[in-house]
Amino acid sequence: AVNFRLRATINGPTTQVYSNMVNSINLEIADNEPENGYADLSWSPYNAWEDASYEVLLSTDQTNWIVTDISQYPFYTLEKPGELSTVYMRVFSTNEGDTAYSNCVSYDTTATSLRIPDIFTPNGDGINDVFSIKNLKYWPGSYLKVFNRWGTIVYRQEDYQGTWSGTRVADGVYFYILLLNDGTSRNGSVTIIR
Question: In what order do the strands lie in the sheet with 38-43?
Fold first, then answer.
């Protein structure tokens, strides 16, 4: 946050008047629970006026802002909206016609929402029967390769849709490389237990 005080000189250098110390609103975002679709916002309280309330603004283009909620406290939990890839947020406070805005922060909702399980249980009970990757739909055309412990490819699929059920392989640990359509990749291990 930026703190500032105004100084006015009246009738020469001998008379100076100082305003109260004022701070700007510094907005920060934390993503403590990306798998649940929430982002935590917090900001420094604005001390220029008593009993400040805050309005949380959202935008997809930093031009058209919509008010999402009003908070009496310098924090807010935001539900990530729908299938937007980037959301910009600001906070502002008003008092008797004056408005103070925070800085603008952005949040890429897709980058943190890809969730790859480390186990699945293809036993036919309808629960965790396939290697399903949450939010893979944001990366259409991704390519999955699965290897056994000796490095032999046991499964491969272009435009992977989360349908591998572990057929023709034994229970155990397998290693995967997921090539995403943006040129990045994810790799790790997955355990199959029937």
Answer: 27-33, 38-43, 75-79
Share of residues in the chain with pLDDT > 70 (%): 69
Cβ proximity of 93 and 53 under 8 Å: yes
* Parallel/antiparallel/unpaired status of strands 185-192 and 119-120: parallel
Query: What separation in angstroms does the CA of 182 have from each of 82, 113, 140, 179, 185?
Result: 21, 15, 10, 8, 9
CB 148 within 8 A of CB 173: no
Confidence at residue 101, expressed as pLDDT on a 0 to 100 scale? 77
Cα dihedral angle (128, 133, 138, 144), rounded to 10 degrees? -130
Which residue in 122, 109, 102 sits closest to 36, CA to CA?
Answer: 109
Buried b (16+ CB within 10 A) or exposed e, 6-31: eeeeeeeeeeeeeeeeeebbbbeeeb
- What predicted TM-score, i.e. pTM, was given to this entire model? 0.48
Number of continuous H segments (helices) and E segments (strands) in the chain: 0, 17
- Three-state SS at 9: strand
